[in-house]
Write a structure and sequence with these properties.
362 residues; alpha/beta; seven-stranded parallel beta sheet; 13 helices
């Protein structure tokens, strides 16, 4: 099958540092190539892939994040050549996917990687039936606009490459990986570490203006109150080492995250988690087996959960990720989806052709 994967233009695939969407796209593109498909990846320069790489920008235009002009230039490279493919899989915004769906060409699969934001949610109902929408968890799908048909394909993680540790580092530290953003709860992670008297290793992304101001105003004053080892804007490998060596990963989400890649990556490293039960957390974490889920906002419960999770089987954490959230599992699910939408599209073409022939004969 000839497949075009359309990544957002803002960061390389896979990302040099933080970038969950780009990491998922990299696994998917390479996995589809390994499965025997003819795959083209549209992504910015600097991307590394076993697929054929198309790039509009020699370097990712990260500083212009959200620029409509750059997005349109990126999309036009994809959809100007759309008839070269059997299916297009768009991971960027709704606008690009919608442009493709209203034009003649192959079926378009559009994965929604973020929340169903109010101004955009209503627009999905106006899209043509040729656009096949995918949510990244069951919880995410339940939050979709009412009446909208949504398939579900969970994100996958690279369980082969992620560093599994049969035992944590001797200091028994906690881990936090994420953006400097109140939705991720880094302030709560610091408070949990302070209360339980453990060292906290944090891998924080602090790039965008709101992240910088949040770090300066909220996080920096808290650092003196706890034993914190901070990695700022590190590589993906550094973040993985923070997770792999920890006794427990603390994930105090303050929003309903559609998937929660850090949860899955932590468990793949063998590190159990203590998390607030929000978003897709209950789909990833087996409460009482690979981690502890507590009511959102219950910091005391999260502290108790850290102590409980410390004794959980790290082998079980890894095995469950291998079985349910491996990259291979994700690739197989998307492969089956592509085949289904292509068959549907071919059936639709045949029906249209039959109607035209009937009209001409009549």
């Amino acid at each position: 099958m000839r497949i075009l994967q359309v990544a957002p233009p803002w960061f390389a695939v896979p990302p040099v540092g933080y970038g969950g969407i780009e990491r998922v796209i990299a696994l998917l593109a390479d996995g589809l190539v390994a499965a025997g498909h003819d795959v083209t990846l549209l992504a910015s320069g600097g991307s590394q892939t076993s697929a054929r790489l198309w790039s509009v920008f020699d370097e990712p235009p990260s500083r212009a994040l959200g620029s409509p002009a750059r997005e349109i230039t990126h999309w036009m490279r994809a959809y100007g050549s759309r008839n070269e493919f059997d299916v297009i899989h768009d991971h960027s915004s709704i606008v690009g996917a919608a442009l493709a769906a209203v034009a003649d060409g192959p079926p378009v699969v559009h994965t929604v990687h973020g929340p169903w934001e109010s101004p955009i949610a209503a627009a999905y109902h106006a899209l043509p039936p040729g656009l096949h929408i995918v949510a990244i968890s069951k919880d995410h799908a339940r939050r979709a606009p009412s009446g909208l048909h949504v398939d579900v394909v969970h994100n996958g993680v690279d369980t082969v490459r992620l560093p599994f540790r049969a035992a944590p580092d001797a200091d028994g530290h906690l881990a936090f990986v994420g953006r400097a953003n109140p939705n991720k709860g880094p302030d709560t992670a610091i408070e949990v570490a302070r209360r339980v008297g453990r060292r906290l290793r944090m891998a924080l992304k602090i790039n965008e203006p709101d992240e910088c101001s949040y770090f300066d105003d909220v996080i920096r004053p808290l650092l003196a109150r706890a034993d914190v080892d901070l990695v700022v804007n590190g590589s993906a490998g550094q973040a993985e080492e923070v997770l792999a060596g920890a006794a427990v990963s603390v994930v105090p989400l303050a929003w309903d995250e559609p998937f929660g890649l850090v949860l899955a990556e932590s468990l793949a490293c063998g590190t159990p988690v203590a998390a607030f039960a929000r978003g897709a957390a209950a789909e990833i974490v087996d409460d009482g087996v690979t981690g502890v889920l507590v009511a959102p906002g219950d910091v005391a419960g999260l502290c108790a959960g850290v102590e409980t999770a410390t004794g959980m089987s790290r082998k079980a954490c890894r095995e469950r990720m291998d079985r349910r959230f491996s990259a291979e599992h994700m690739v197989a699910r998307y492969d089956a989806l592509y085949q289904r939408v292509v068959r549907q599209d071919m059936s639709s073409v045949r029906r249209r052709a039959t109607r035209v022939l009937s009209t001409l004969r009549g």
